[in-house]
Design brief:
- The chain is α+β, with helices and mostly antiparallel strands.
- The protein folds into 2 domains: 30-115, Beta Complex (RNA Polymerase Alpha Subunit, Chain A, domain 2); 125-213, RNA Polymerase Alpha Subunit, Chain A, domain 2 (Beta Complex).
- Helices cover 17% and strands 47% of the residues.
- It has 4 helices and 14 strands.
- The protein has helices spanning 2-6, 9-28, 67-74, 161-166, and strands at 31-43, 49-51, 58-66, 80-83, 91-96, 109-114, 117-137, 143-151, 154-160, 170-176, 182-188, 190-191, 198-199, 205-213.
- The strands form 3 sheets. Strands 2, 5, 7, 9, 10, 12 and 13 form a 7-stranded mixed β-sheet that branches. Strands 4-1-3-6 form a 4-stranded mixed β-sheet. Strands 8-14-11 form a 3-stranded antiparallel β-sheet, with no helix packed on it.
- The longest helix has 20 residues, at 9-28.
- The protein is elongated, with a radius of gyration of 33 Å.
Length: 225
């Protein structure tokens, strides 16, 4: 009996120490279930396609595991990664969110994802030149615009095909004019109201406006029939 107890004593003590360490780890880090909202990221997006804004941007993940692993996961900037490899033309595609789409630390399991499925719509990326419409603020004092020219007259707009086709004009920031008759030149910036679209143009916009002051109408008094 004594020989059995002392045989391979070092290995037995090591096994005991490992068991105690594991037990302490389990006691100090109880298993929890928590919900974490994470963004959706896309891998291998085709260069000529865009994910439309109708697609969801975040997923809520319910994960189970030791508290220290959950904290590690929360601080690691987690994300759901959807691989678009193999998609080469505009389409709609549904992905079922599983643990394969999330990089979980050892010891964590994915209980569920909300939504459980993500449906993506991919459209062709197009570029189209759109007319620029300046937003000119006419000063008070009886002034009126007799001519205005904007340069460039058109700007290239890039984005999902359906949204680019729906744009009629590119607007400018308000152009404030001085209350002075004559020609004035103002530099300003163009912008798009649709946040999913962008301008393929790094420069500004120049607006040239010619103002005249209307003469007050005269109505002679004292002339009666």
């Amino acid at each position: 009996m004594k020989r059995w107890l002392t045989e391979n004593l070092g290995w037995k003590l090591l096994s005991l120490a490992v068991a105690v360490a594991l037990w302490l780890t389990f006691v100090n880090h109880p298993e929890l279930v928590t919900s974490i909202s994470v963004p959706i990221e896309y891998a291998n997006v085709p260069a000529d396609l865009e994910v439309t804004p109708e697609s969801p941007e975040r997923v809520r993940l319910e994960v189970r595991g030791p508290s220290h692993r959950i904290h590690q996961f929360e601080t690691s900037s987690p994300a759901v990664v959807l691989d678009l490899k193999g998609i080469h033309k505009p389409c709609e595609r549904t992905f079922r969110i599983t643990s394969e789409h999330v990089k979980l630390p050892p010891g964590l399991t994915l209980v569920r994802a909300v939504p459980a499925q993500v449906r993506l719509k991919l459209e062709r990326r197009v570029e189209r030149r759109i007319p620029v419409r300046p937003h000119v603020v006419v000063p008070l004092g009886g002034f009126e615009i007799v001519s205005q020219v904007v340069e460039p007259a058109e700007l290239p707009v890039v984005g999902p095909e359906s949204r680019v086709r729906a744009v009629e004009v590119v607007e400018t920031d308000p152009v404030e004019l001085s209350p002075t008759a004559g020609e004035q030149t103002v530099s300003t910036q163009a912008f798009l109201r649709d946040p999913e679209l962008r301008l393929a143009w790094n420069g500004g916009v120049t607006v040239r406006v010619k103002l005249v002051q209307r003469r007050p109408s005269s109505s002679p008094e004292g002339l009666r029939e």
